[in-house]
């Protein structure tokens, strides 16, 4: 089963400095049919104006993955971590028992991110933060694991959930495959470009909720950049 969720069907709110689209219920957007997908709880498509951002705010018991699509995001938290994550790269925050952080677009141009929240396998634990570059050339034509809590994914940023976040870039006409283990949930969004997933067309920023598919074949109709979450129920 692959359910296309068109970008124009997403919830959201425009705050001026922030234009946010929500694949799942979030903040003032509530849809009982879109409360999450497996352990995936939030997928926000955020457009952040230059020299603005999210002031300090708390989180706990959530794995928060930020995938930068355009521009850069600068993170700062109460543990003393500070870092700038550029387009194509990823940062991960395991909120654990509690952390307070801020995220700013300190760039002269607009920043666009996907922010993905995954429910951890267990509550608690010391909060952590990390970021890592993932050159797009290294995921050209194949899925590369960006963040994961699954054994064997040691090159990825660690998260505390039996889930992985993957990135893929394809030139128009190219394709790539991904196989799911049994009883997994997939959610896929093309950050850029139109694609087909097992023959179902997705435009840029559409979502695809995937269930009971042993494998998917992603074909690029345009030059494309894709993010996939593979999570437990």
TrEMBL record:
One Pfam family name is Pirin_C_2
Q: Which residues form the Quercetin 2,3-dioxygenase C-terminal cupin domain?
A: 151-230
Membrane-crossing residues?
Answer: none
Please give the superkingdom of this protein's source.
Bacteria
- Name of the featured protein: Pirin family protein
UniProt similarity note: Belongs to the pirin family.
Where does the record place a coiled coil?
none
Looking up CDD domains in the UniProt record yields: cupin_Yhhw_N
Q: InterPro entries from the xrefs?
A: Pirin (IPR012093), Pirin_N_dom (IPR003829), Quercetinase_C (IPR041602), RmlC-like_jellyroll (IPR014710), RmlC_Cupin_sf (IPR011051)
* Residue span, Pirin N-terminal domain: 12-118
């Amino acid at each position: 089963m692959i359910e296309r969720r068109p970008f124009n069907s997403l919830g959201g709110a425009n705050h001026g400095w922030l234009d946010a689209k929500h694949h799942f219920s979030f903040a003032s957007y509530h849809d009982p049919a879109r409360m999450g997908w497996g352990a995936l709880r939030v997928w926000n498509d955020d457009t952040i104006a230059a020299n603005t951002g999210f002031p300090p705010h708390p989180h706990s018991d959530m794995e928060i993955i930020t995938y930068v699509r355009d521009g850069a995001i600068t993170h700062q938290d109460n543990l003393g971590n500070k870092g700038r994550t550029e387009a194509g790269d990823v940062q991960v925050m395991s909120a654990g028992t509690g952390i307070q952080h801020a995220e700013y677009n300190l760039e002269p141009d607009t920043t666009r991110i996907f922010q993905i929240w995954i429910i951890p396998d267990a509550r608690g634990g010391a909060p952590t933060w990390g970021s890592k570059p993932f050159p797009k050339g290294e995921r050209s034509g194949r899925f590369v694991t960006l963040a994961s809590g699954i054994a064997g994914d040691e090159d990825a940023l660690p998260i505390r959930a039996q889930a992985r976040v993957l990135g893929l870039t394809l030139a128009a006409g190219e394709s790539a495959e991904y196989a799911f283990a049994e009883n997994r949930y997939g959610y896929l969004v093309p950050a850029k470009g139109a694609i087909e997933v097992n023959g179902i067309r997705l435009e840029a920023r559409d979502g695809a909720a995937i269930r009971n598919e042993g494998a998917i074949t992603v074909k690029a109709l345009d030059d494309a950049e894709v993010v996939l979450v593979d999570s437990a129920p």
